[in-house]
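Follow-up to my post from last week.
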Amino acid sequence: MHSLVDAAVFVPALPLGGFLVLLLAGRRLGDPWAGWLATGATTGGFAAAVVTYAALLSHGGDHRSFTQTLFTWLPVGGLRVNASLLIDPLSVTMALFVTGVGALIHLYSIGYMRGDPDFPKYFLYLNLFAFSMLALVLGDSLLVTFLGWEGVGTCSYLLISFWFERERPPAAGKKAFVTNRVGDFGFLLAMFLVFGSLGTLRYTEVFAHAGQLSRGTVTAITLLLFLGAVGKSAQIPLYIWLPDAMEGPTPVSALIHAATMVTAGVYLMARVSPLLSRAPDTTTTIAVIGVATALIAATIACAQDDIKKVLAYSTISQLGYMFLAVGAGAYAAAVFHMVTHAFFKALLFLGAGSVIHGLHDEQDMKRMGGLRRWMPVTAATFIVGWLAIAGVPPFAGFWSKDAILLNAYDKSPVLWALGLVTALLTAYYMSRQVHLVFFGRERWREADRHDAGGAGAEPHEAPWTMLVALVTLALLSVAGGALNLPFTPKLKVLEHWLHPVFGPTLREVSVGSGLEVGLALGSAAVALLGVALGLAAWRGRVERPALEPEVLRRAWYVDEAVSALVAGPGTEAAEVLADKVDAGTIDGAVNGLAALVRGAGTRLRRVQTGYVRNYALGVACGAVLLLAYAVVRAG
Amino acid sequence: MTVSAGWYLTLSAVLFTIGAVGLLVRRNVLVMFMCVELMLNAANLAFVTFARQLDDIGGQSAVFFVLVVAAAEVVVGLGIIVAIFRRRAGATADDLNLLKG
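User reply:
Got it. Predicted complex:
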């Protein structure tokens, strides 16, 4: 196979190269050249992904799956793992949006991180992240994917705790790492199970032999993989790390904790769709957990004051939508929403970063307000993102959310109803956020007076590198829906493109076209209703305790419950181990032995009188005894 | 008239006993030192006696070893005793109990 498809190798190779250069010469390049290098590497990766995409297009629809083997990575006994790339429509779609959105966020970061003492290190991590994410999506076996999976987890940890000299970021990084380990454990067990029953980890071979697996095995494998996805994509019950992860720099929240890494779980589910189609119990579990996460996270987002926390819970909620789509068998809809969500959520996060930047690290929305006059570009783009996530037609979010709700309705009207309530809440809390931040009184003026050492300066618009990213993402958020318009089969570009991957596993939607239009109109109406409610409720108001009950502000007390149920007994068990087992038994044995030797020595030292005659007597007695023994033996 | 080997051995035993008892009961370091020499020579006498009796040169050569060791011991021992006399008034063994455990 010698074609332009080979360009795929440059997709992960360029960010890796950027990482290596920054590792060796990052300090010397400094601010801002390290950032430009990293941005260039990721942009190069995007260009390579575009070339690969074009090359795939030149092949026939059913011949768009290639494996590119680079070298043998692990030859161990019966297990032979190649470092090879699986190039098919799904992985190329992922590679395109990871590198595309990634490059924009790299560019934005040059402005955002300007002046940070660890500027080169930040871009070093960012390029390592881009490489790991691309290894994840392009890997042709579960193990290569797992390599990327762990790589992005590490980068997430490193970047959350990037400002490690502060108090909270390192704790948040640890929390993210530990919570993710729970999911990774499931991923590992799933790999053991796959290898144990099929003897291979390559996707193509696993799917070809999936028929040999018993139903129980398939269910176990998919449930364990889903556990991994739950950890990585922040679903119930492992979502608690994502809100804390907002301690990292805001572009990191946009790139890793909104657009790309957290969608890795959805990608994994889409990738193993041939297994999922054989495990109906798993898909039902996925749909239920997805919709529950979407709803609960949306309720929490309604009562948060931190501009980034709202977006974090919103991300969890939108990821829940994607899992709902996966559970309903609508993998194309899940990928569609993943892409549009990457556009508008990255846009919202970057807009929030611009606001935080402009207000000198203020994150409390109650102390913002009226910013549209001071930051017109940020405000305009943020409003586009708001309409997109709220699902107002014709913005991107409407089309992808509608596709998911349609499939959910086909699976079960209950799932659809819960999804619709979530859509209402989404429109409501995003309107609340937009109103609190960009409209109303300019409360930051009062806030400045409280802070004795406050900057006092007026908010300022972001530098051009940040604005370029914002405007580009805003355009994508407007037009992203064109990827997959539902009017005629021809307009379903993304679904058609992904068909070779999901084709055999897709559920046929059996909803009449009249009902389909009705559902779409319903979700549009719900979106507009949510927007209206949000604006009406927060017009001219800042504090409405009735709409922000304590239970929601504290996120249903889940963190407290986890502390009490998991961390509490864990600490107690550790204390028992330390006091009883370690101090009592292990130290006791060592100390007891020492006491025994010491006691014996204390008694024996009486023999050493220091008088020569005593020693001489001892020698004489010994000689006599030896002599007597010899005589007795001889006699 | 020849003296039988028994008498030599008896003399050797008597000398050894005198040396051993002297070592145990006397307190003067110099005297104790001489008692050790007495015991060594008692052993030498027994060696020579048996060498003569059994017509074996091994006993006599063992005596030379003992003599050499005794000479070396005298050198070291007397050196120590002189050092002790320099530091203290007398040389009573019971006063030298610094190594008491």
